[in-house]
């Protein structure tokens, strides 16, 4: 017959074995199941963020190109409107008008770059 000390000793041994199994299972779960899922999730999130950044850059480039095209169109319209000899294929403008028109174009281009590149 078992004594009280033997029963309590066996109880403690079983308790320790069960505790160690729980700890081992917890470590197994963390390393084999949880971490790979987390790493996959993190990789997908990072990829999604990179795609979003690329999409935003592409949209900004399209908007910049449109803005620059509009500036060029406006510049050409100003040159045509102020051309003193519209019959030839070149623009003939007074120097002040030419410089003023060029300044407007340069400011518009700078505004486009500032708006869509910063």
Walk me through this protein's architecture:
It is built from 2 helices and no strands. The protein is mostly helical and 118 residues long. 86% of the residues lie in helices and 0% in strands. Helix 1 runs antiparallel to helix 2. It has one domain. It has helices at residues 4-82, 95-117.
Short description:
The protein has 118 residues and is an all-alpha fold. The chain has helices at residues 4-82, 95-117. 86% of the residues lie in helices and 0% in strands.
Work out the helix count: 2
What count of structural domains? 1
How do the helices and strands follow one another from N- to C-terminus?
HH
The overall average pLDDT, rounded, is 88
Gap between N and C termini, in Å? 86 Å
Roughly how many Å is the radius of gyration? 37 Å
Mass-distribution shape: rod-shaped
Strand share of the residues? under 5%
Topology, pairings included?
Blueprint: H1 4-82, H2 95-117
